[in-house]
Design a protein that fits this description.
Blueprint: E1 4-7, E2 10-13, E3 18-24, E4 33-39, E5 46-52, E6 57-59, E7 67-72, E8 77-82, E9 91-99, E10 102-105, E11 109-114
Parallel strand pairs: 2-11
Antiparallel strand pairs: 1-3, 3-8, 4-5, 4-9, 5-6, 7-8, 9-10, 9-11
């Protein structure tokens, strides 16, 4: 069973930056892709960014140009660098990984952006 553990969330002022980490319990080479999702109170979970095994990335329109997803294969870790944070970025951020036909989720990390 794959485990994903997120860290790096916290409280930051608007315009600030955070870097989230997602550490996997197994080699991330085994994943078809990894992604970050977020869920704000009262809203549906939404896709924020994805990165494939080959390093191709994609972003939600709302975060493009501000967020960067990256991976460190040696550390089995995926990161989400978030710059110029806005209050509307406040949410619980979840790491997700796809392995064959199975999906795995982390427990989430809270990001709160104050205005």
């Amino acid at each position: 069973q794959v485990q994903l553990v997120e860290s790096g969330g916290g409280l930051v002022q608007a315009g600030g930056s955070l870097r989230l980490s997602c550490a996997a319990s197994s080699s991330i080479f085994s994943f078809n892709f990894m992604a970050w999702y977020r869920q704000a109170p009262g809203k549906q979970r939404e896709l924020v960014a994805t990165i494939t095994g080959g390093g191709n990335t994609d972003y939600a329109v709302s975060v493009k140009g501000r967020f960067t997803i990256s991976r460190d294969n040696a550390k089995n870790t995926v990161y989400l660098r978030m710059n110029n944070l806005k209050p509307e970025d406040t949410a619980v951020y979840y790491c997700n990984a796809k392995q064959s036909e199975r999906y795995f989720w982390g427990q989430g990390t809270q990001v709160t952006v104050s205005s």
